[in-house]
Amino acid sequence: MDGMVVAFFVPTVIFLTFVAPVWIFMHYRSKQKAEGSLSEAEREEMQVLLEKAERMIQRIETLEAILDTETPGWRKRAGAE
User: Is residue 42 located within the same domain as residue 7?
Assistant: First the structure.
């Protein structure tokens, strides 16, 4: 009976001491890496949003150029409000 306990106890202690901590560490490390990256759909959505933002910036710059030409003091009035 003592041989059976030792035969079960020693591998269990070795497993819990060496294998389990490494296993847990690797599991959570891989899980963190998977959560940190964007999926393909998220990347595509990000690209669409980036293109929309760039178009919006161009439109704002165009509107500001038009206002500079037609109403030269508009920036001073907008800053005073």
Answer: no
Q: pTM (2 decimals)?
A: 0.51
Per-residue model confidence as pLDDT tens digits over 24-76: 999 988 888 777 777 889 889 999 999 999 999 999 999 999 999 999 888 88
- Is there a contact between 38 and 46 (Cβ–Cβ < 8 Å)? yes
Domain around 69: 38-81
47 and 73 assigned to the same domain: yes
**Residues 43 and 33 grouped into a single domain:** no
Helices (H), the chain: 2-14, 20-36, 40-70, 74-80
Count of domains forming the chain: 2
Rounded to whole angstroms, how far apart are CA atoms 45 and 31? 23
Position of tokens 């959505």?
45
Contact 12, 5 (CB under 8 A): no
